[in-house]
């Protein structure tokens, strides 16, 4: 993909820790900074990006140039989006084996007409399977962001995901760790923080893997509601999450220059 300057993968060990939420809102935040941004949903067995962007029923058009067919990504909130979810029936899971799934992602990336892109964010499936390995080995990745909740069981899996990137032959720099669902602040008690999943886990992981903590995203009910309705968190009244993603984008912009 010669027109794509930087490819950043967002990975986690455990599922459900907020990897897609971080991928989606990081992409939107980078676009709000004037960057040309693409978002690839590589979470092939549970693609949630189309729902999060409210584009689940859309089908990307195909452009034909001579004998070459290219898929045009769907654009929303300033981000060019591609997902295997556009090509599957809702409620129907994929039952592909790893190599087939990995190849379909590769093909999807190669046949999409991206245009000039400053940052491509790839939302990885959780864990360290064939898809992650194939993408890490075949694309020239700029770096990886590890998402975790502060909970020890999430951290244990996040360590494994991080170790994949430092394995010989893969060697993708880890840009940093994002701790999601860091605390909960009830509306009635705006000065209080409840550390539901524990405290300091993201920072601990960052130190262990010789990296940095890029940010902490609080647990906010509207985040889940916005995802279900296909709304950006940036349209919310709850500013703590907006600030968290703006800060994250700033850190990524200074760590990975265009
Ligand atoms: N900070 C947050 N506050 C409230 N809800 C959140 C937050 N982050 C994520 N969620 C919600 O938690 C659920 C899981 O998030 P998400 O889909 O981003 O996780 P994931 O790690 O990508 O999961 P998987 O890879 O297993 O599909 C979603 O319903 C999402 O809206």
Description:
The protein has a single domain (4-253), classed as 3-Layer(aba) Sandwich (Rossmann fold), CATH 3.40.50.300. Helix content is 34%, strand content 21%. The chain has helices at residues 19-32, 49-52, 98-110, 130-138, 152-166, 201-208, 221-229, 239-255; strands spanning 4-11, 37-41, 62-65, 68-71, 74-76, 79-83, 117-123, 143-148, 174-180, 213-217. The strands form 2 sheets. Strands 5-6-2-7-1-8-9-10 form an 8-stranded mixed β-sheet, sandwiched between helices. Strands 3-4 form a two-stranded antiparallel ribbon. The two termini are 15 Å apart. The mean pLDDT is 91. Bound molecules: adenosine-5'-triphosphate. Residues 12, 15-21, 43, 46, 48, 126, 180-181, 217, 219-220, 223-224, 227 line the site of adenosine-5'-triphosphate (ATP). Adenosine-5'-triphosphate is lined by residues 12, 15-21, 43, 46, 48, 126, 180-181, 217, 219-220, 223-224, 227.
Distance between the termini: 15 Å
* Residue share in helix: 25-40%
Q: What is the CA-based Rg, rounded?
A: 18 Å
Number of helices: 8
Q: What's the name of the CATH homologous superfamily? A: P-loop containing nucleotide triphosphate hydrolases
> Stretches where pLDDT falls below 50 for ≥5 residues?
none
Hey, roughly how much beta strand do the residues contain?
15-25%
Q: In the CATH scheme, what's the topology name?
A: Rossmann fold
Q: Major beta sheet, specifics?
A: 8 strands, mixed
Please count the beta strands (DSSP E, at least 2 residues each). Answer: 10
**Assembly classification:** single chain
Number of domains: 1
CATH class: Alpha Beta
CATH architecture: 3-Layer(aba) Sandwich
| Largest sheet strand order | 5-6-2-7-1-8-9-10
GO molecular function: 4 iron, 4 sulfur cluster binding; ATP binding; ATP hydrolysis activity; ATP-dependent FeS chaperone activity; metal ion binding
InterPro entries: Mrp-like_CS (IPR000808), Mrp/NBP35_ATP-bd (IPR019591), NUBPL-like (IPR044304), P-loop_NTPase (IPR027417), YlxH/NBP35 (IPR033756)
Binding site for ATP: 13-20
Subunit structure: Homodimer.
């Amino acid at each position: 993909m010669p027109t794509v300057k930087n490819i950043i993968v967002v990975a986690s060990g455990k599922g459900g820790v907020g990897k897609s939420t971080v991928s989606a809102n990081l992409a939107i935040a980078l676009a709000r900074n004037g960057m040309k941004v693409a978002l690839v949903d590589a979470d092939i067995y549970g693609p949630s990006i189309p729902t999060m962007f409210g584009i689940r029923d859309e089908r990307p058009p195909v452009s034909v140039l001579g004998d070459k067919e290219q898929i045009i990504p769907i654009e929303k909130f300033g981000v060019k989006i591609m997902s295997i979810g556009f090509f599957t029936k809702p409620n129907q899971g994929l039952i592909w084996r790893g190599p087939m799934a990995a190849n379909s992602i590769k093909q999807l990336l190669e046949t999409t007409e991206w245009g000039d892109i400053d940052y491509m964010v790839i939302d990885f499936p959780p864990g360290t399977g064939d898809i992650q390995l194939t993408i890490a080995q075949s694309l020239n990745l700029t770096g990886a962001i590890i998402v975790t909740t502060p909970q020890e069981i999430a951290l244990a899996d996040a360590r494994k995901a991080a170790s994949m990137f430092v394995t010989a032959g893969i060697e993708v720099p880890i840009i940093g760790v994002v701790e999601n669902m860091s605390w909960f602040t009830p509306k009635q008690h705006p000065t209080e923080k409840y550390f539901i999943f524990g405290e300091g886990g993201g920072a601990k992981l960052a130190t262990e893997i010789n990296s940095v903590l890029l940010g902490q995203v609080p647990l906010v009910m509207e985040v889940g509601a916005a995802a279900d309705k296909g709304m950006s968190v940036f349209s919310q009244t709850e500013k703590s999450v907006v600030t968290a993603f703006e800060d994250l984008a700033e850190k990524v912009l200074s760590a990975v220059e265009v």
